């Protein structure tokens, strides 16, 4: 019989966090085919990455009336 404990978390296991120190929440988004294709294009084949990049770009965009959309 082994003396090493079995199971438990492994150090460094899993994908790294998107933003260090922050958790993420799973969401489900329904997109029409054109928006899905755009998100795939923006995210280099990854819809979720494309949606996150589009939201980040939107938050830094300047609206035509000069207002910044960054409200977070």
TL;DR?
The chain has 72 residues and is mostly helical.
Description:
There is one protein chain. The protein is an all-alpha fold and 72 residues long. The protein has a domain at 31-72. It is 33% helix and 0% strand. The protein contains two helices and no strands. Helix 1 (33-42) packs across helix 2 (47-60). The protein is elongated, with a radius of gyration of 19 Å. 3% of the residues are buried.
Count up the helices: 2
| Helix fraction bin | 25-40%
The low-pLDDT segments are none
Shape: elongated
Largest sheet: none
Compute the CA-based radius of gyration: 19 Å
| Mean residue pLDDT | 85
Strand content: under 5%
Compute the number of strand runs: 0
**Spatial separation of the terminal alpha carbons:** 55 Å
Computed structural class: mainly alpha
Helix-strand sequence? HH
Write the topology of this structure.
Layout: H1 33-42, H2 47-60
Considering the chains and any ligands shown, give keywords for the structure.
72 residues; 2 helices
């Amino acid at each position: 019989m082994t003396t090493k404990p079995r199971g438990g978390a492994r150090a460094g296991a899993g994908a790294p966090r998107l933003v260090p120190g922050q958790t993420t929440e799973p969401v489900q988004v329904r997109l029409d085919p054109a928006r899905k294709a755009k998100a795939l294009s923006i995210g280099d084949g990854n819809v979720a990455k494309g949606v996150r990049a589009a939201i980040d770009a939107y938050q830094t965009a300047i609206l035509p009336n000069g207002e910044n959309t960054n409200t977070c």
